[in-house]
Amino acid sequence: MKLVSLTPACARTTVLLPLYLSRVAAGFPSPADDYLDGGLDLNEHLIAHPAATYFARAEGDSMIELGIFTGDLLIIDRAVQAVDGDVVVVAIDGELTIKLLDLAHSRLLPANKLYRPIEISPESQVDIEGVVIHAVHHVKGVGKGVTL
Amino acid sequence: MIGLCDMRSFYCACEKIFRPDIRDSGVVVTSNNDGVVVALDDRAKAVGIKKFEPYFKQRRLIERAGVLAFSSNYELYGEVSARIMATLAELAPNGIEVYSIDECFVDLSAVPRHELKAFAAMLRDTIWRQQGITMGVSIAPTKTLAKLGQCATKLFPQIDGVCVLEHEAQWQWLAARVNVNETWGIGRKLTRKLRTRGINTVADLSEMTQADAQALQGITLVRTVRELQGEPCIDMDCQPQPKQNIISSRSFGQKQTCLKPLQEAVSHYAVRAGSKLRAQSSLCFRLSAWLQTSAHDAKPCADELSATLPGGTADSRELSRVAVALVARLYRPGYKYAKAGVMLQDIRPEQFAQQDLLSPRSENAARLMAVVDGVNERFGSGAIKLARQGGEAGFAMKRAMKSPSYLTRWREIPRIKLG
Questions:
Q1: Beta carbons of B304 and B288 less than 8 angstroms apart
Q2: Element (H, E) at B49
Q3: A78–B407: do the CB atoms touch at under 8 Å?
Q4: How many helices (H) and strands (E) does chain B have?
Q5: What does pTM read for this prediction?
Q6: Where are the beta strands (DSSP E) in B314-358?
Q7: Is A124 a catalytic residue?
Q8: What's B20's DSSP letter?
Q9: How far is Cα B136 from Cα B156, in angstroms, rounded to an integer?
Q10: How confident is the model over B4-24, as a mean pLDDT?
C-alpha cells in the first residue's frame, strides 16, 4: 500500500489555478508570472484534519437560530476537543443528532425555541462524535419567488 | 521495539461508526455475492455463527439471534483503513508498515522504554476518538512477539488493549498460554506437523533447536523460532514496494454462458487493473486472463491464457483489447462460468522500462489515461469507461445488504436529524 496516495476523501477535490498564465513559447511572458501564489485550496480553508473529518447532510430545523438549515452540508471534525459553545454531534437514543454544548450547565441545547434542552446527568453517558466546524449553505436561486 | 496495531472486528466495527443504533448488536459481514460470512464480531461469535460458512446456511441463526448482516462495503472499509493508517503514520516517529487492511506495524525505536505503554495507549485512544474503531496495541522486540502480544490484549480485558512485552519472562509467560497455531506464519499444515512432535504451545516452539526447525520447514521456521526468542529477524518495511502482480477478479452475480458478458467483465477488470498500474507509475509486459466455472459444477472447467505486451503498456484500452481477445479463445459454449479474472504480470517501473523499437509507446496514450484517471477520481470510478466494458447488470456483484458508502460518495454521506 502506498501511503502517499492515502489522501482522505474530503481532500480529493484540490483545484488549483494554473501556475503559468501565459505560454512562454509565443510572444512575451506575462508580467504577473513572477507574482503567482499557487492558487487557493478550499480544502485547506475548511478542513484542518482531513483524516478525522467527515461530511454529513443536515435534516431538520432544530439549529436554525445558529444558522444551520436543512440541506446544509456539515463539515465535522473528530480530532478537535469540544469546548463550551461548540456545536457537536452526539448520539441520543441510538440516533446521531446535533446540539449546542453548554458545559457550564451540563446541557445540550437546541437552537430553536420549539425544542427542549437535554440535561446531561452524571449517569447518562453522552459521547461526542465530532465537532461541527462549518455548515455549507447552498445559496444559488434562493431568492426566486421571495419578496423582501 | 516494534508495535503492532490491530483493529478489532474491523469490518463489523466500520458498519457501526455511523449507526449508534446498532452498536450493541452483533454484526456479520458477507463476502462478494453474499456467499459466506467473512467477518463477525464477538457478539455474533457468541451465538455460534461461524466464519467462512455459507451465509444461507446460517441465515436463520443470524436472524433469530438479532444479529445484523451486511454485504461487504469495501469502499467504506478501505477509506476507514486509509484514514487510520494516515493517522498512525503521522503519530509514529519512524513510520509504519501497513500489513493488511486492519493491521500495521509501527517502528518504535525512537520512543524511550519507559514511555512505550503511554505511547501505545495514546495511539489507541486517538484511533478510537477520531475513527470510532477499537484497536489492540502490542509492543515487543520482534514482529513475531508483537503478534503474540495481540493474544494478550484479547485474552485479558483488564489490560485495556495494550500489551508491552519488554522482558523475556513476560513473553515466556504468555507463550506458555497460547496455542502454537496462533504464531505468526504458522499455518494449519505446519501446526499438525508440530503437534505430532509434541509442540503444542508457542513456548514449546520457542524452545525448538535451530537444527530441528531447519529440518522441519527450513529458514522461515528458524526465523520464527529466533524471533520468539527475542532476536529480530524480520525487518520493518516502511517503504512499500510496487506490486509485482496486479490481479482483478470477481465472481459473477449470476452464472454466465455467453461470450459477450464475459468479455465485458474482463474488459472491466483490465481497466481497473490498469488504473492501479498507473497509480504506481509502472508498465506491465504480460497479461493473463482466466475463466472458470464453480468447482461444484456438473461440468467444471478452468482455463487461463496469457499474452506478452512488447514494449510494455499502462494503457487501459490496450490491456482491455488483449484481455477480450484472450477470453474469446478461452470461451467454450455449454459451460456455466462463475468467475473471470485478469492478472497484470512482469510489472516494471515506468522510468526504467526500455522502449520497444517496433512499437514505441505513445505519449498521447499516457496523457489520455491521466485525464481518464483524473475524471474517474473526481466523479467516481466508472465515470469514463470503455464501450467494451458494457453495462454492469450481468456480472455486477450481488450486494443486497450493503450499507451506504458514507465517506466516499456524495449521495451517500450520513444524514443527521436536527430535531
A1: yes
A2: none
A3: no
A4: 14, 13
A5: 0.76
A6: 337-349
A7: no
A8: G
A9: 11
A10: 96
